[in-house]
Amino acid sequence: MTHTDVRLDTAADLPVERDALIGSAGRPGRRQRGERLMVPRAEFRSYYGRPVLKPPTWEAADIGGYLFLGGLAGASSTLAATADLTGRPGLARGLKAGAAVALAGSLYSLVHDLGRPERFLHMLRVVKVTSPMSVGSWLLAGYGPLALLAAGSAVTGRLPRLGRLGTLGAAALGPAVASYTATLFADTAVPVWHDGYRELPVLFAGSSAASAGALGLLAAPGPEGGPARRAAVLGAATELAAAYRMERRLGMVAEPMRQGLAGGLLRAGKLLCGAGALAAGAGRGRAVTATGAAVLLAGSICLRFGIFQAGVASARDPKYTVEPQRERLVARTGRRERRS
Fold this sequence. Notes:
Blueprint lengths: L1 E5 L11 E5 L37 H26 L3 H26 L3 H5 L9 H25 L3 H27 L4 H5 L4 H20 L6 H25 L9 H23 L3 H31 L2 H21 L1
């Protein structure tokens, strides 16, 4: 192995500025024995530190409300059908009415973010099963009339057969309505949402079930609240477990979930969900149950908004885009070398 001294000029008494390795054998990109790095390795992030991705332009209030209210509506319809089939008319009526109101709020938030109502109708011009946006638009278009029919019949007492048809139809589409937004988010390039594709559907489904159970506990008479209580507790447990698993699995990419506004919202959401589920599940009187249900709803709202804000923060910092790509590249290179 041969070294040469790189000097500022040809004077023999000048110190060596750096050592340059000449004729080194081995694979490119690997340090050889005896090599000294005189400058730190370059750590590319992005051009002048600017975001690699264009951050989402969605309004937090609109899309956060759309996420929460849509999930609440879908899960409430499914829970309402359960109440109907088990002879709990008060619980069923409250959940059907709540689902209709939540659906209206969700659609308003979506249309308000789109800017013009006709843009939602434009999404119905084609059916594209590979597009979560297209599938979600058709889900809402099919679910909405059924949920409104079920609620109208339950509140007025008219057209019971059509109302029952609407109840069963909305219940069948309810789980998809409650969780399809997770697939919609995971289909983007936003690091937190994209890399959390495994846990997001479970988290959103759990959050929807918890909020629907909480709504049922607020709307139903005490003796009829059993299914709502179970849904609230099980949904909250699922929601918290999925959030914990997502943070652990994503590693460095999950940093926005622990920092800033997103971190504050998620911490508050976890505390509220845990406390609300304990109070609602204890069944120690109407006042305690109602308070627990309200706290649980607040926790689910915080978690949905926290997930939204964490995704926006991860898109703004190029580190969360570049570093995972580099790690995947190194892993693929290592696998190829082991096979060779």
